[in-house]
Design goal:
Layout: H1 6-9, E1 13-19, H2 34-47, E2 56-60, H3 66-79, E3 85-91, E4 94-98, E5 104-108, H4 119-122, E6 124-125, H5 126-132, E7 140-146, H6 166-173, E8 178-183
Length: about 200
């Protein structure tokens, strides 16, 4: 991708970055590096990907309520244009809840969740986040989830085959709409929190 720059792929980039360490809810332990990670992601986007700091919404600890997270993402979605991208990064707790139909749903835990038993009503389910993208003109939306859980509401996947080489290939694969979710772990795994 070295031959194709971000400016050749995107007109604008938008980002919503969340880091929550100081959970006060029952049964939710405090984390150690979520805020540092969120701030570092912001710095990387500005310094290495030339994203305008005014187009990055950073929500840390008490600011990272369910309403603020959803409103910030929806604002970026509504501001985006067809040749834009949106990056959503979440560092904090996640939970997986089994559904009555035999599946499971992944939830992000906002700072204002006071009881883990209320996660279905007061958490942020991954299906809702994905459904927000139906209102986005942006061609690329990337969800980076640094939390423990599975049950993602991901759409089907398909492999990319580099039938063309060089710039033409990269332009081809960056032209259409893409919504991608990358998580730190599955439902049966715990995302590790280490100083490194």
């Amino acid at each position: 991708l070295s031959a194709v720059t971000n400016s050749q792929i995107y007109n604008n980039s938008w980002a919503v970055i969340i880091g929550i360490e100081q959970y006060k809810g029952e049964g939710l332990k405090e984390l150690n590096y979520a805020v540092d990670d969120a701030e570092e992601i912001r710095n990387i986007l500005i310094e290495h990907h030339n994203i305008d700091p005014d187009k990055i919404k950073l929500l840390l600890n008490d600011e990272a309520t369910k309403d603020n997270i959803e409103e910030s993402l929806f604002y970026s979605i509504k501001q985006s244009k067809p040749d834009d991208r949106i990056i959503f990064y979440f560092a904090g707790h996640g939970m997986t809840v089994p559904t009555a139909t035999g599946g499971e749903m992944g939830y992000l835990v906002p700072v204002d969740l006071h009881n883990r038993n209320d996660i279905v009503l007061k958490g942020i389910d991954m299906k809702s986040l994905k459904d927000f993208t139906n209102y986005a003109e942006a061609k690329h939306i990337l969800f980076l989830i640094d939390a423990c859980y599975g049950g993602l509401a991901a759409v089907g996947t398909r492999a990319l085959k580099p039938e063309e080489e060089g710039d033409a290939y990269w332009r081809k694969i960056t032209k259409g709409k893409v919504r991608k979710i990358i998580t730190a772990g599955r439902a049966d795994e715990e995302a590790q929190e280490r100083h490194e």
